[in-house]
Design goal:
By secondary structure, this protein is an alpha/beta fold. The chain contains 12 helices and 8 strands. α8 links the parallel β7 and β8. The chain is globular. One of its GO terms (molecular function) is ATP hydrolysis activity.
Length: 277
């Protein structure tokens, strides 16, 4: 089997809808691919698969087919722009938590088969803080929290951090401000969030940067293309480039838990309360 290849698993989440998680996931994936990373994007927004819609792709099969044993993981992978590969969502994958041991083993096998060919797995999670979101975020190794300048965004992000910290022992979160209007806005959002987390929780938040609000994002959505690819010189694309460089410098997992099969193990095994998962 060769040596285990460490894969950076990043869950993009936000606690609420409308903060631009899918846009962040897709554009960050493209920016990392530009740095020479082999990137796979897992659309885990199970009720509303939108990565494929955003990029004008039409998947014939999805993760549910893999779990059912009807096809291999490589049969569902879509080729996206910039060499990124996309695993489309399956609306039934809420059943991930209720897999038979055979399905469970099959899923782990499927991901370990591809782990040597990717460096980064980005997971676009659903909105809210439902079970599906928690499973994916808890299993990932880096949590990228997308926030915007609206009161509910900060309160929902805080609720998510609190839940993940108190119930699942997660203590490190990365914060990305999206759709900002001034350079200060992102820092201020980060400050607001850290003010509440520092008072009530034992967590470390790190500020990753801000993606400016950009009219070209809407235009690229209409073209069913990612802004990073459609308008590579836009302010927005430049910001993604800067964020990707930061993400690329995050330490790779040194322990075996940083390998894809362990990610899937954690995804499908609900932790028992009181465990140090």
């Amino acid at each position: 089997m060769g040596s285990l290849h460490p894969v950076q698993v990043i869950a993009v989440t936000g606690g609420k809808g409308g903060v631009g998680k899918t846009s962040v996931s897709v554009n960050l994936a493209l920016a990392l691919a530009d740095l020479g990373r082999r990137v796979m994007l897992l659309d885990a927004d199970l009720g509303l698969a939108n990565v494929d819609v955003m990029l004008g792709l039409t998947p014939k099969r999805n993760l549910a087919d893999v779990i059912e044993g009807e096809c291999e993981l490589r049969d569902v992978i879509l080729q996206g722009p910039g060499g990124i590969r996309i695993v489309p969502a399956s609306s039934g994958a809420a059943n991930m938590v209720r897999l038979t041991s055979q399905q469970h083993a099959g899923l782990i096998q499927a991901f370990s088969d591809i782990s040597d060919s990717i460096d980064v797995l980005i997971i676009d999670t659903a909105a809210g803080i439902g079970d599906g979101v928690i499973s994916f975020v808890r299993a990932a190794q880096e949590v990228l929290l997308v926030v915007t300048d609206e009161p509910t965004s900060i309160t929902d992000a805080y609720a998510l951090v609190k839940l993940l910290n108190r119930d699942y022992g997660l203590s490190r979160f990365r914060v990305l401000a999206n759709m900002t209007h001034t350079p200060e806005e992102g820092r201020n959002l980060y400050a607001k969030l850290t003010k509440v987390t520092e008072r009530f929780l034992d967590v470390a938040l790190q500020y990753v940067g801000a993606i400016p609000a950009d009219e070209l994002v809407r235009k690229s959505v209409q073209k069913q293309r990612a802004v990073y690819e459609a308008y590579p010189r836009s302010k927005c694309a430049q910001a993604y480039r800067a964020v990707a460089q930061k993400v690329d410098s995050w330490p790779l997992p040194a322990n075996p838990r940083g390998h894809l099969e362990f990610f899937v193990e954690r995804l499908v095994n609900r932790p028992t309360t009181g465990s140090s998962a």
